[in-house]
Specification:
The protein has two domains: 183 residues, Isopropylmalate Dehydrogenase; 120 residues, Isopropylmalate Dehydrogenase (3-Layer(aba) Sandwich), CATH 3.40.718. The model has no long low-confidence stretch (mean pLDDT 96). The radius of gyration is 20 Å and the shape is globular. The longest helix has 19 residues. The chain is of the alpha/beta class. A twelve-stranded mixed beta sheet has the order 3-4-2-1-5-12-11-6-7-10-8-9, with helices on both faces. Keywords: Cobalt, Cytoplasm, Magnesium, Metal-binding, NAD, NADP, Oxidoreductase, Pyridoxine biosynthesis, Zinc. Its EC number is 1.1.1.262. It catalyses: 4-(phosphooxy)-L-threonine + NAD(+) = 3-amino-2-oxopropyl phosphate + CO2 + NADH. Catalyzes the NAD(P)-dependent oxidation of 4-(phosphooxy)-L-threonine (HTP) into 2-amino-3-oxo-4-(phosphooxy)butyric acid which spontaneously decarboxylates to form 3-amino-2-oxopropyl phosphate (AHAP). It is an enzyme of class 1 (oxidoreductase).
Length: 322
């Protein structure tokens, strides 16, 4: 790795700042730097202020390298301070610029509080992923949840279940499959990714008896991509896709809606799941949890998911380097 990972502060009133310190303690040799206001870190945190990302590589392993970004005001744990919303957005923008310039090898984002950003700064994006795509000038990206046990991609994400059939178009499914396939090659080092695609309906529609989306929408897309040489299984019955023997037969599971994808991975590896955005020109990972305002500052938040996100960012950067 030639450049360190940029770790954004996320919501300063959440668990992000304290988890950054804990992750540095757990990963002293992993090159990273934290972008945020040092006043928002836990009192007495062992930090080293830097002016440029490359200086993080010379910081002692028992110190958290901090690239300071001044916010409007201090922010007590567990509290949302609207005046600081603009600073949160600026930190993300700064991290992206550093990644695009090559000064950072990847961006790892701490959780946001979307309502706080909307109320405090008029934030117009549903979340991190859409904002990062906007900053990168990319129209279509894919959300992957990944752990050593399973990788899943939901085709439709944060919409009501009743809206899924209408949103599930051939174009969306094809774009999701292509981005996932390319991301597994570029960011995970797989030369010939194997994709398993779930059906929308129980038993993958059972030949049309329980729904026809598999026949009308899913199967034609899969057949077309198989003809191009992609290795794709499905459409498969989702209830038999996630036991150990089934998981051994593919590299990523493509699911039709949010819970179909996220329930399996959160059941198998709740603390080790990482949110990865595929399709960006830079690497982005994030822990798979929220701001946890209710426990912020109490010393009980677990850094496992952030540690996993930083490790995955490191490994993805190495894969791109190869």
């Amino acid at each position: 790795m030639t450049a360190p990972i940029a770790l954004t502060c996320g919501e300063p009133g959440g668990v992000g700042p304290e988890l950054a310190v804990a992750a540095r303690t757990a990963l002293p040799e992993l090159p990273l730097f934290w972008i945020g206001d040092p006043r928002h870190l836990p009192p007495g945190s062992a930090i080293a202020l830097i002016d440029r990302p490359d200086q993080a590589l010379q910081v002692a392993p028992d110190l958290l390298p901090v690239l300071p970004h001044r916010f409007a005001t201090p922010n007590p744990p567990g509290q949302l301070v609207p005046e600081n919303a603009r600073g949160v957005i600026e930190v993300i923008e700064r991290a992206v610029r550093l990644a695009q310039s090559g000064a950072a090898s990847a961006v790892c984002t701490a959780p946001l509080h979307k309502k706080a950003l909307k109320d405090g700064a008029g934030f117009a994006f549903p979340g991190h992923t859409e904002f990062l795509a906007h900053l990168a000038g990319v129209e279509n990206v894919v959300m992957m949840l990944a752990s050593p046990l399973l990788r899943v991609v939901p085709v439709t994400i944060h919409i009501a279940l009743a809206e899924v059939p209408a949103a599930l178009t051939p174009a969306l499914l094809e774009e999701t499959l292509r981005i996932t396939h390319a991301g597994l090659i570029r960011d995970f080092g797989l030369t010939a990714p194997r994709l398993a695609v779930a059906g929308l309906n129980p038993h993958a529609g059972e030949g049309g008896a329980m729904g026809r989306e598999e026949i009308a929408i899913i199967s034609p897309v899969l057949e077309r991509l198989r003809a191009e040489g992609l290795t794709i299984l499905g459409p498969l019955s989702a209830d038999t896709m996630f036991h150990p023997r089934a998981r051994a037969g593919y590299d990523a599971a493509i699911c039709m809606y949010h819970d179909q994808a996220l329930i399996p991975i959160k059941t198998l590896d709740f603390d080790g799941g990482v949110n990865v955005t595929l399709g960006l020109p830079f690497i982005r990972t994030s822990p798979d949890h929220g701001t946890a305002l209710d426990i912020a500052g109490k010393g009980v938040a677990r850094p496992d998911s952030l540690i996993a996100a930083l490790k995955m960012a490191r490994d993805m950067a190495a894969a791109r380097g190869r």
